[in-house]
Amino acid sequence: MSVLPTRRLAVVLVAIAGALAVSPLPAVSLWWVAAVVAAIGVVLVVVDALSSVPAAALAFERRHPPVVVAESTAEVEWTVASDARRSVRLLVADELAPSLRATARRFDVRVPAGDVVRVRTRISPLRRGRFDLDRISVRVVGPLGLGARQRDVPLRSVLRVHPPFRSRDEAELAIRRGRILDIGLRSARGLGTGTEFEQLREYGPDDEFRRIDWTATARTGRPIVRTFRAERNQTVVAVLDTGRVMAGRVDGVPRLEHAMDALTALATVSTRLGDRCGLVAFGADVRAEVPPARRRDQVGRITEAMYALEPELNESDYPSAFAHVVARHRRRAMLVLLSDLLEPAVEDSLLPGLPLITRTHLVVVAGVRDPQVEAWADAPVVTDDDVYRRTAATTALVDRRRTAARLRGLGVTVVDAPPGQLARRLADAYLLAKSTGRL
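Above: the chain's sequence. Below: its structure in token form.
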């Protein structure tokens, strides 16, 4: 606890100093009077601060939603309850991080005797992550308003800010296309019918001849066809790279943010269509894991596991991560690696570990490409700097295409999309694999 002067004391001392400056007292007397006034001011500050309402008579509480989505708006409420016999003025400051973008982090409030006062502010988090709020600073002003006692009050709470789901609309469209497949019809993108038997029914003019069940036809005397639906109860495992390559910024945000958005869309689509979805996040080692499940809250569980992850500034260990996945998922599954098609990383780490998973699983490698590099490759050349920039950009694009071709040659499905389209194209790859029976 500390004793502090208030602004009112400063105003009083300035007024006294002004009065002394125009007084007819000798200069020596002015110094002595100023010293006496300063001493009296110190005494008043101490006495006034010690006369303030004791801390034991005040109770504080902070309320906010446990989870807030980044770039959305939420409300934080502080409650101050007083058991004192007189009103008290409080200056309170909370330790809300600047990235939470609170409209106010401090408030000045007067609490009547034995009453409760609530103060609210709005936050609009700029970035995701975990925010541990440990305390607030409280300044209790004395009855004269000249001095105050300040102390830190422990007030612990945790605010979790989840990443925004920008591809929600694309995920809903993918779910609709998947449900068309589920009833045995063709989707608008021509992804085909399912391969899991659903029922027998009488032949119609739009049915394919090869779908006729000749045994049922002979038994009933009428042409009967088999209908199929997209498979259910398949397993999709998102393998999220959180290493150095995911720290690079594309369209103003790290690659990891684009990958998380696409992962959320994939989890939403797959679980809503009856499949199991899980997560393995890794860098130098495995950092988070959610077992595959088809639960209503599975997307929330995946988001909760990855929301606080930040890119590591070291190389990712692909072979160890793949060995971890294979040890836990021996049955065939769709493994979606969200990383980057950077040639050195693929050459040194990804390719050596790829045979561990391609023997059993359907592997998809997804990454977001940088439109700025494409713009540099197509930009006109005016200066020497333009030549160097265009050469470097063209080389990077050629290396990226060569890396994607090598992965496709090994039987890997590659999704290389610009910002804003990664989630949609990844959902399309999932629906295509599901409808053609590759899972």
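The chain is about 35% helix and 30% strand.
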